[in-house]
Amino acid sequence: MKVLVTDEISKTGLALLTEDPRVELDVKLGLTVPELHETIGSYEAIITRSGTTVNDALLEHATNLKIVARAGVGIDNVDVVSASKRGIIVVNAPFGNVNSAAEHSMALLLSLCRKITLANADLKSGAWNRAPFTGYELKGKTIGVIGLGKVGGRVALRCRAFEAEVIACDPYISEKRAEDFGVKLVDLDNLVRLSDIITVHTPLNEETKGMITAAHFARMKNGVIIINCARGGIYEEEATLEALNNGKVIGAAFDVWSKEPPATETLKQLIGHPNMVVTPHLGANTHEAQKNVAVDVSKEIINYIDNKPIANAVNIPRFDPDLMDQMKPYIGLISIIGDFISQLAPPNPHKITFTYNGKLARFDCAPLSVCGLAALLNHCTDQEINLVNARLVAREMGIEVEEVRSTETDSFSNLITLTLESSEGTRTIAGTLFEGTPKIVKMRNFDIDFRPEEHMLVMTYADRPGALGKIGTILGNTKVNIGNMSLGRREKAGEAMVVFSIDSPADKATLEAVSAAINAKFIRSVKLKQ
């Protein structure tokens, strides 16, 4: 395989490729765009960092290209859609800097607690002061870790080594996995209430952007310390500044910012605050991390040559065409089921079971299982979960995945059932295709029948006269229009489940009003990808 390197990459990290006789590695730095276009046609793989733009124009000339390897986390400089259309796999190195980020988090925390930066500047100015720089020990403190993934898990282990008590919030990690780290799982409200120190290690997405709000700061202990070495914007920055100014937060250490370089007045005030320790996004800036990302992408290229699974592909690779002809109609269905149940089920599942009934079970359903798994897990990580790496990520989270197939079925020619098991019990959702349209036909032990749409409401309550009218009135008063409704119940005047499709999302206040009006046992809004 001919491999082109167009940016500065660790030579040590590329050793796997240079030592493999099947690989012809060329390093050509500083190519102009026309030169790169002229050169790329004879290569099957390209390794880049941020200095090379792999766009549609380049890919048009890359007639033999099979894989694009980005030696780093971000893929902003790669047109993934264009690559996917051409059957080109795009890989990155999302975990090469894991240890670097964990150690930088600890460096920021210790520097803040022991006032290292202030004391350093003071002594270098010629002064000799000790009392102003009295610090805090980690021993005996309660440290809350939000996000117990690869970085957060390492931070948790290091904090325990300092004899701190560690609690964690991560709805996507099994309780067994948390036990492996020696930490106790709690919800976010309890974490912010109980912690002396809070550190975040989550991806930045719709779920986590602005996750720590002014309301959370209000519930924190007075004198709390906060750390952010993950992504800028997880803490609401204006609320963070206010908490620093009013003394609720006694100190903060941030490596990342919502705008980089920081340009807003709020960010400038945060960076200049005397109780802040700050660095310019240095979490991955170690010699070891730069070597690791080069090693990681080199391994992916070797895996491709050896026809082995690629762990860090960010787009969907091609499947056997004959199999995909059978699976294609059901991929959308199972992706919807996975996305749907991930927003309803209790956190920390330890087992996920995919059951296929009917004619579909005659075929290998593995592509469907990983599609459903990817849709379910994509809410919890900044790594793109796809058909290649879904099972690997589930294994790292301590989740057992099982597949069951049976040609027997009661009511439908084909039925797909997804079951999640956690310490809080079992949740089940089942769906089928009706004239090519995905439909959900069972949730928990309720028979139900609805077509999934972008915005939905799911609730259970004691079936009483007038309940549906109350729901409709409240939604109408808040300008939320009901599109369709499906009601499931097991007996008259018993527990009922109702699912609404709505034209626009319902806010938290609306959900609280509906819940109070009908004494709902469960109520949740769902937003499905379209």
Q: What's the topology here?
A:
Blueprint: E1 2-5, H1 15-18, E2 24-27, H2 33-40, E3 45-48, H3 56-61, E4 67-70, H4 80-85, E5 89-91, H5 98-113, H6 116-124, E6 142-146, H7 150-161, E7 165-169, H8 175-181, E8 184-185, H9 188-194, E9 197-200, H10 214-219, E10 224-228, H11 237-245, E11 249-254, H12 265-272, E12 276-278, H13 287-305, H14 321-342, E13 351-358, H15 366-377, H16 390-396, E14 400-406, E15 414-422, E16 425-434, E17 437-443, E18 446-450, E19 455-462, H17 467-477, E20 482-489, E21 495-502, H18 508-518, E22 522-527
Describe the sheet with the most strands.
7 strands, parallel
Uncertain regions spanning at least 5 consecutive residues: none
Helix-residue proportion = 25-40%
Superfamily (CATH H level) name of the largest domain: NAD(P)-binding Rossmann-like Domain
**Count of discrete domains:** 4
Number of helices: 18
Gyration radius, rounded: 26 Å
| Strand ordering within the main sheet | 8-7-6-9-10-11-12
Q: Architecture of the largest domain, CATH level 2?
A: 3-Layer(aba) Sandwich
Summed over residues and divided by their number, the pLDDT gives a mean of 90
Broad CATH class of the largest domain = Alpha Beta
The name CATH uses for the topology of the largest domain is: Rossmann fold
Distance between the termini: 38 Å
Which shape, going by the Cα principal axes? globular
Number of strands: 22
Based on helices, strands and strand pairing, what is the structural class? alpha/beta
Strand % is 15-25%
Provide a short characterization of the protein structure:
The chain is α/β, with parallel strands linked by helices and 530 residues long. It has helices spanning 15-18, 33-40, 56-61, 80-85, 98-113, 116-124, 150-161, 175-181, 188-194, 214-219, 237-245, 265-272, 287-305, 321-342, 366-377, 390-396, 467-477, 508-518, and strands spanning 2-5, 24-27, 45-48, 67-70, 89-91, 142-146, 165-169, 184-185, 197-200, 224-228, 249-254, 276-278, 351-358, 400-406, 414-422, 425-434, 437-443, 446-450, 455-462, 482-489, 495-502, 522-527.
